[in-house]
Write a structure and sequence with these properties.
Elements lengths: L6 E2 L5 E3 L4 E2 L6 H10 L13 E7 L5 H12 L6 E8 L5 H8 L6 H9 L7 E7 L4 E7 L2 H7 L4 E6 L13 H10 E9 L4 H10 L1 E7 L6 E7 L20 E5 L3 H11 L4 E6 L14 E3 L9 H22 L11 E4 L3 H14 L7 E3 L1 H8 L7 E4 L3 E3 L1 H11 L3 E4 L5 E4 L4 E4 L5 E5 L1 E4 L4 H5 L7 E12 L11 E4 L2 E6 L2 E5 L17 H9 L5 E13 L6 E6 L1 H6 L1 H4 L9 E9 L5 H17 L7 H6 L4 H8 L8
Parallel strand pairs: 4-5, 4-8, 5-7, 8-9, 12-13, 12-23, 13-19, 15-25, 23-30
Antiparallel strand pairs: 1-2, 2-3, 6-7, 9-11, 10-11, 14-18, 15-17, 16-17, 20-21, 21-22, 24-27, 24-28, 26-27, 29-30
Helix pairs in contact: 1-2, 3-4, 5-6, 6-7, 8-12, 8-17, 9-17
The structure holds S-adenosylmethionine.
Length: 643
């Protein structure tokens, strides 16, 4: 992404030389935010007594409109549960520009500090920031408005159009933008902008807004206030925010990385959680491994997998920081992670990938063998990708921290063999038919077992993996990696006496059967040219559940019986049109990226259950939709229609 260039004019107004325009009126940024945007969208009346209120802004700039709106929301005793602001930005400003601009407004100081502390790297996609303890969620949408707007899922209640002047920045004022706003608008949504140009009024009117010209702010003669009135033919989808959840209780089956993250994201919304697992103590299954790594994924074309992992990686890092700040430190070691190339050819491809994607160095960069060896404190024969914010964590400690934070009621050592829906509640039963627990919302976070409890033609495959704990003869005799390694070898120094080496897929999309038998000590000597003086070895095996596309299943589960009854008609549908099980969600099929998927999937599910906008683009939500395998089966005629 190209960063913003911001210079201050003599009167102190921030100016963008690349657009030849100011970021806000010279008559005052905060005053303009209040008069043009907040009052122009008829706030606070519009948000009074609304549980969730959603604002979409075109042009985040220096964030004055967002902070002013958040401050007005927080100051209003009639405010609801949560304000969501989605703000688009093609050229993110730097922290210093934000600080300088916010320092003129001491009334925004607390929110500004929170914003700047979480200010993301300039990476394309959606970045969710939690402000004021979750009373305000800001989703920064980095990229071009033309691509971003079609990728969002509505509805929104208010729109701020705040591009640079239409003559200098026409992309922000196109008819496409106005039509996209109409698609995303809730019935009666308000829209405001400081410009009253005829083309804008005409474009908004043609898109379905009723437009009024009002006296302008400062030296502007006029501004626009508008309201969306859907045409008679438009069937408006039900607004998820209007249906308040009956009881804020979620039942989670599965106490691993997936389930514990679900508990955390629901708890951040003040939902109670109950978690059931066969294991005792927790965690069992694939989460019983000693260490798990978290790092980005890069591809030259920024494929869906890379975009999803980026979103998941950043949300996980932020959620773990939040846990630590709340006194439940999960002990994440995010001090960098090295992905080592298998061979010279892969090393060259990794270098090309970095020059093609040009990510910020703080996200990912290429290091040759010498530079990588220096970072890792080891003599390595190959370089690869260096992920500055990557690292590792002990799943057991993470899960404990998340469940403690969420004050989850944990029922361990009980196997759920059947679930049933009574209309209002999902119930979980054991083998003897005893009811274990119930709640209006149920999340299956129990890997392959989820498919047994709620069959949905999921294409899940078990893949055995192995971690080998190597106790060293004497600390100091072996050179341990200073950071976590992945790629050609997966290794984490748990402490000065213990090295953990994991089996990996060896650069292939899937492991060969004999991968798990491959001797980790040999792998290590091959890569570093030095044998490990091992005292003892202990193997920990775990079976991960993967999907053919290496993407997880996260979201509302399909109602396979209802879909099969309408099989012929649904063959041409999209996965999102398939019938669903009300209140029944899935979070499984995480494969080798459990940490990267955990918070992303949990946040998506918590948002759906609580009627809030999603933390990711809709094509990314579609890519992990648990109904996609059922749709494939319907399309290929692999299932017998019942209707
Ligand atoms: C007038 S400033 C916004 C000021 C901002 N609302 C505030 O409160 O500080 C306009 C912003 O639109 C952004 N922008 C320009 N063209 C864009 C595009 N095509 N897509 C997304 N953002 C764009 C600019 O980088 C700039 O930050």
């Amino acid at each position: 992404m190209t960063a913003a260039r911001v210079i201050l004019r003599d009167d102190g107004t921030p100016f963008a030389p690349d657009y030849g325009d100011v970021y806000h009126s010279a008559d005052g940024a905060l005053a303009q935010a209040r008069a043009v945007f907040i009052e122009g969208c008829h706030m606070p009346q519009r948000w009074a007594h609304r549980r969730i209120f959603r604002v979409l802004e075109a042009g985040f700039g220096l964030g004055i409109n967002t902070l002013a709106t958040a401050a007005a929301w927080l100051a209003d005793p009639a405010r609801g549960e949560r304000l969501h602001v989605f703000s688009m930005e093609k050229h993110p400003a730097g922290r210093a520009d934000l600080e300088r601009s916010h320092s003129a407004h001491p009334e925004l100081a607390v929110l500004s500090r929170e914003l700047i502390a979480q200010w993301p790297l300039p990476l394309p996609g959606l970045h969710r920031l939690w402000l004021a303890d979750g009373a305000v969620l800001l989703t920064l949408c980095f990229g071009d408005i033309d691509k971003l707007l079609p990728s969002l899922e509505g509805p929104f209640d208010a729109f701020y159009l705040d591009g640079f002047a239409p003559a200098r920045n026409p992309a922000m004022w196109s008819d496409r933008v106005f039509r996209a706003c109409a698609r995303l608008a809730a019935e009666g949504a308000t829209l405001a902008t400081w410009s009253a140009a005829g083309a804008i009024r005409d474009g908004l009117t043609a898109a379905g807004f009723t437009v009024e010209r009002k006296p302008g702010f400062g030296r502007k003669r006029h501004r626009i206030e508008a309201q969306y009135r859907p045409p008679a033919w438009r069937v408006m989808a039900a607004d998820p925010a209007t249906a308040a959840p009956a009881a804020r209780e979620v039942l989670i089956i599965g106490g691993g990385i997936a389930g514990a993250a679900v508990a955390q994201q629901f708890a951040r919304r003040h939902w109670k959680s109950t978690l059931v697992d066969t294991a005792s103590p927790l965690p069992g299954g694939a989460s019983a491994i000693r260490a798990a790594t978290l790092h980005p994924h890069l591809s030259p074309d920024d494929a869906v997998l890379s975009r999803l992992v980026r979103n998941g990686f950043l949300q996980a890092v932020a959620a773990w920081r939040m846990l630590a700040g709340a006194g439940h430190d999960p002990g994440a070691r995010l001090d960098g992670l090295a992905e080592i190339a298998e061979d010279a050819a892969e090393e060259a491809a990794m270098a090309r990938c970095i020059s093609r994607c040009a990510p910020p160095a703080a996200y990912a960069c290429f290091l040759d063998a010498a530079a990588m060896s220096a970072r890792c404190g080891l003599q390595l024969s190959q370089g690869g990708h260096w992920y500055e914010q990557g690292g590792w964590i002990e799943p057991r400690a993470l899960i404990a921290a998340q469940l403690e934070y969420a004050a989850t009621r944990v029922i361990s050592g009980r196997e759920v063999t059947r679930i049933a829906h009574t209309g209002a509640l999902w119930q979980a039963f054991d083998r003897d038919g005893q009811r274990i627990a119930d709640a209006p919302v149920l999340v299956l976070a129990n890997a392959a077992d989820a498919a047994r409890l709620c069959p949905g033609h999921y294409r899940l495959r078990p893949h055995p993996g192995l971690q080998t704990l190597i106790a060293l003869q004497a600390p100091g005799e072996a050179v341990l990696p200073a950071v976590a390694l992945t790629g050609a070898v997966q290794a984490v120094a748990l402490d000065p006496h213990t090295l953990l080496i994991g089996s990996n897929y060896g650069g292939r999309p899937e492991p060969d059967a004999d991968d798990v038998h491959c001797d980790p000590l040999e792998r290590w000597s091959h890569l570093t040219g030095r044998p490990l003086p091992a005292l003892s070895k202990q193997a920990i095996s775990a079976t991960r559940i993967t999907t053919p596309d290496h993407l997880p299943l996260a979201g509302l589960l399909p109602d396979a019986a209802a879909a099969l009854a309408r099989a012929t008609e649904l063959r041409g549908a999209q996965a999102r049109d398939l019938p669903r099980q009300p209140g029944l969600y899935g979070a499984f099929g995480y494969g080798a990226r459990g940490l990267a998927w955990s918070v992303l999937a949990a946040e998506l599910i918590a948002c759906r259950a609580n009627g809030e906008p999603l933390p990711l683009e809709r094509e990314l939500a579609d890519a992990i939709d648990p109904a996609r395998h059922l749709l494939q089966a319907l399309r290929r005629g692999e299932v017998e229609p019942t209707g």
